[in-house]
Design goal:
The protein has 281 residues and is of the alpha+beta class. The chain contains seven helices and twelve strands. This is Endonuclease/exonuclease/phosphatase domain-containing protein.
């Protein structure tokens, strides 16, 4: 049976949109049209994104256009790095609360939260979108601590964290670091270490905290391939579900058939990840 709901009900998507905001701001919608095609095909009830570059400019013109193009409402979480994040939702979803820190309090891109009431569910779900530092393992540990303090108190309820962790979680295969240029190894490995630092994700996992949805589904496929800079393929785009929400996750998958733009460029350097929430337990 397909894990894709015909009407998108209960479907949640997370996607790193890559450089598309810069391109749209410059008048090139080619990559965005490929992204829009995929999002409309999947019809998520809730869409969480990062790398929403330029969405804040000109009175949030790109963000407004995105909501109109997708038929969704949403909230934008501004980052001091300008690598913004957003949570969007379809008609029928009710916004109950928005939470987050001022951009200047985040070490890097940061995180934000929207509490949403979904059709057919008794209790609202707290959706958290986060993006950890791509350049510093030490910063990622600090950001993870901040995120744990922000989202952790709500792990006793129904909470879903979607994040670009920029590192692999506990239990995933060790990436192949042999092709990474020397000046980039420090982006991934702590000083003196030869293996990935899994602590930023690990600090968010465990009894009373969150659970790695992909690992629970036994699907540890990479969500990024080998990058232009030589960084290895690995699974860094993650859904972390609280204990009460985890039994309601019916399916999970990284989207494999991502369309290219009309000019042949990939829609993103990240695969979107999708899960489907079933009935409330």
């Amino acid at each position: 049976m397909s894990d894709r709901s015909p009407d998108g009900s209960g479907t949640v998507m997370f996607w790193n949109l890559y450089r598309t905001g810069f391109e749209r701001h410059a008048g090139d919608d080619t990559r965005w049209e490929a992204q829009r095609e995929l999002i409309l095909r999947e019809r998520p009830m809730v869409l969480m994104v990062t790398e929403a570059w330029c969405w804040d400019l000109s009175d949030e013109a790109l963000f407004t256009d995105t909501k109109k193009a997708l038929g969704m409402d949403g909230v934008l979480f501004r980052a001091k790095t300008e690598c913004h994040q957003a949570i969007l939702w379809r008609p029928g979803v009710e916004l109950r609360a928005v939470d987050g820190y001022p951009p200047e309090l985040h070490p890097w891109h940061g995180f934000g939260c929207a509490v949403l009431e979904l059709p057919g569910r008794r209790d609202p779900v707290r959706f958290v979108v986060a993006h950890l530092d791509p350049y510093s393992p030490l910063n990622r540990r600090i950001e993870s601590d901040r995120l744990r303090g922000f989202a952790g108190p709500h792990a006793a309820g129904r909470t879903l964290v979607a994040m670009d962790a920029n590192t692999v979680p506990p239990g995933d295969p060790e990436p192949d670091w042999s092709g990474v240029p020397a000046h980039r190894l420090g982006n991934h490995l702590l000083p003196g270490e030869r293996t990935a630092d899994r602590a930023p994700v690990g600090a968010l996992l465990g009894e009373g905290l969150f659970h790695d949805v992909g690992a629970r589904a036994r699907d540890r496929r990479p969500t990024v391939g080998v990058s232009e800079e030589g960084d290895p393929a690995r699974r860094i785009d993650l859904f972390l579900a609280s204990g009460p929400l985890l039994p309601e996750v019916e399916s999970y998958r990284p989207v494999a058939d991502v369309p290219a733009g009309a000019d042949g460029r990939p829609a993103s350097d990240h695969a979107p990840i999708v899960l489907r929430l079933g009935a409330q337990a």
